[in-house]
Amino acid sequence: MIPVLRKLTSYSIPYAFLGMLAVLATFPLAWIIISSVKSSTELASNSLSFWPRDFTLEHYRRVLFELGAIRNLGNSLFISLSTTVLTIAISAPAAYGIVRFYPKVGQRLTQVLISTYMFPPILLAVPYTIIMITLGLSNTYFGLVLAYLSFSIPYAVWMLTAFYQTVPIEIEEAAYVDRAGRVRTFLSIASPVILPGIVATAVCTFSNAFNEFLFALLFINSSDRMPIAVALYSLSGSECSTGAR
Amino acid sequence: MKDRSSNIAGFWFVLPAMLVVGALLLYPVLSSIFFSFTNRNLLKAVYGFVGFQNFASILQSRDFWNAFANSMKWTAGSVLGQLVVGMLAALALEKIPRFSGVFRTLLIIPWAFPAIVIAFSWRWILNDVYGFLPKLLNAIQITDGNISFLADPQLVFGVALAINIWFGAPLFMINILAALKTVPSDQYEAAKIDGASGFQRFWFITMPHVRRVIGLLLILRTIWVFNNFELLFLITGGGPAGMTTTLPIYAYRTGWGLRQLGMASAITVLLLLFLLILAAFAFRLVSRWERNPTK
User: Domain range spanning residue A91?
Assistant: First the structure.
């Protein structure tokens, strides 16, 4: 009986600590979701009740259709997808080339690529602004996607290099014997083997582009082309920021 | 396979990425340095050289040093807070016999959302008219009348810091947890038999296994938090009265608010220089730390 009791008290502190953290971690997001389905009158009242008294999707309807957030969501999807496709199309051959043809330079190169992590995005923002004004790319999807490639490609090359390193050279040599060219070998032998790695890289690229805020804020200024994050930010100035994210 | 032609083939594989990195990273960084010596304005195409005048006026500006001090406090406070909370959470998760997976999933949640969602959720909770927290504090009679957490000069920095710790601690937690899994449990038992205290076991067995991960995380997170613009910008906008203006927000205001792009370039160049020095110092410190376990 006593050892059980002692065990209980020795676990109670970590459990209490984790329980407290779990409440802190989930409450703010839970609260904003709950608030988004409460009526405006209930939000304005002094109520602290967790569950909504009268459930409503009015705020979602307003944000998505009247304020045009559905279009901004579409913009976000389009921009992030374009970034992802271009990033993989450029980074996968580069990562493969580094692993297969320049293994020694490759190590240095990936170090250089990962050190670009240190560049402050705001440092790139000034020259990008000037380049976009000069080339007439400000307020275009293409300009924003180009800016996103600057951080997505180094990251994707670095990730994909690690995956291509796991492809055994023997299966590629078998393909050479069958007279497959280098591009064929890359496309139909090496890349399918690491498809899960390519998917993982694509998911990271997509979510980084989707969540990006600074470049989108600086380079897109008409509300019908804004990605969702910037649109919500500009909305919050005029409207009370209740409702959906 | 290992002849000249394979090198040429390899060249074509790598070329597009090299071009993109050259055009989108190398050229912009160099041109940023170039513009830091000019009086380039956001709206005017004509500009002239001003030598070191931008740097001179920045280094004499009180706003710059205010932003610099804020950046230092913001980065040090956030990263250390994230480390302490993340470490404690990881140790607690490692200790409990059941539900560890459930707690882990719940605790990762803050890290999984974009800055705008984080910032707006907290702004809604802290809102001085409708917010949950001010109303709760009133209801349990700690305060009399709503506090405005994000407008009060005495509270705003600490509140923003707490939100950033809340946001970043999960990353420390999952990485430290992964490192804790590599500690062989028989070492703990041997130490227990030898009569080592809980703290001694932590310091001499746990720490050597997680030290490398912590060192790397500290460096990467320091750089990231120092450079980060959006979370603080979306929570406070740098206010009230510049109390939460960090260097990236200061550069943003100078370049796009005041339209002095040349001046903003100079600020960002100083930012990069400072980071490079800091990183060189940090990497040296961490590699020494890894060699001498007890120091």
Answer: 64-238
